[in-house]
Amino acid sequence: MRNTILITGASSGIGKATAKLFQSKNWNVIATMRNPEAETELKNLERVLVTKLDVTDDQSISDAIRIGIAEFGNVDVLLNNAGYGAYGPLEAFSKEQVVRQFNTNVIGLLEVSKALIPHFRKNKNGMIINISSMAGKMTLPFGALYHGSKFAVEGISEALNFELEQFGGKMKIIEPGTIATEFAGRSLDLQNDETIIEYQDLVNKLMGNVKVMFENASEATMVADVIYEAATDGTDKLRYIAGEDAKMIIENRQALGDDAFIKEIKKQFGL
Ligand code: NDP
Predict the structure, then answer these.
(1) Residue of 40, 79, 90, 239 with fewest CB within 10 Å of its CB?
(2) How far is CA 188 from CA 4, 92, 170, 183, 185, in A?
(3) What distance in Å separates the CA atoms of residue 258 and residue 84, rounded to the nearest whole number?
(4) Is the CB–ligand 1 distance for residue 101 below 6 Å?
(5) Residues 157-183: tens digit of each pLDDT
(6) CB of 68 within 8 A of CB of 8?
């Protein structure tokens, strides 16, 4: 039987590139997104079902899973990809904005997983692939919310793997570096409060630093290739780094240890 993947946040970037790659590899694809009516490209591909799923809306999660299983009979792999980045001084965020970051990147991922795990358990098979980030392994100034959410994804994924293994399931974590998608554009929730003068120098340095980092961003198709490898390599490997920048930074932290690595980050910001 043909394999089926369900992808969250398939309207753009990594999610869309992954939907196209798996379709080209002869998989069935349940490409879920908040606004399926706006999607034109994926709808034209055979074996791709485009359907609504907002990770913060429980009803849309269960509807998408039900519609997907009705169409293809089964789901083998869940790709928890939907997410965005909230950056800025904590003081500049309302509670609503804080909650939205964690509801999307963390609670949403948990709820979609929770909704599919009974299906995987019944099948004694099934894989969850969570999109973390190199931002789940290191932090930048004013990234308390985004890095906090991705550190949470790392811990959640590692712990959940023990559970999944009890019935033959598997967890994979993908850690991309900077990727040329909508992430640094419409998916960036950038907040600042210019009246808090103590932060402004560092805010400006962060903006400059992020701009440089994204000048060398890799393509979303590179991450899709790594996700495909994770889904199909048949190993128990848990973490997959995607991109040379991520590889360098993650290995550097491991080699230096926490304190020396954080000193290096400070140096980059002239601190
Ligand atoms: P994009 O902005 O291109 O894609 C983000 C996707 O998430 C969009 O499809 C967006 O949908 C979707 N999304 C946001 N909120 C929700 C929600 N509530 N329910 C369902 N979907 C939602 O960026 P990327 O492709 O880069 O981001 C994908 C993932 O990769 C994220 O988890 C991000 O944190 C991670 N990542 C990105 C990196 C990068 O440098 N680009 C680096 C490392 C990790 P909509 O079109 O409706 O807004």
Answers:
(1) 40
(2) 30, 15, 31, 6, 6
(3) 26
(4) no
(5) 999 999 999 999 999 999 999 999 999
(6) no
Task: Give yes or no for residue 161 CB within 6 A of ligand 1.
Answer: no
Residue-wise pLDDT tens digits, 78-109: 999 999 999 999 999 999 999 999 999 999 99
HSE-CB at 126 with a 13 A cutoff on CA atoms is: 23
The verdict on the CB of residue 182 being under 6 Å from ligand 1 is: yes
Dmax (CA) for the chain in angstroms is: 61
Domain 4-268, CATH number (from 3.80.10.10, 3.10.180.10, 3.40.50.720, 3.40.50.2300): 3.40.50.720
Tell me the pTM. Answer: 0.98
The closest alpha carbon to 109, from 143, 136, 74, belongs to 136
Taking residue 225's Cβ as centre, other Cβ atoms within 10 Å add up to: 15
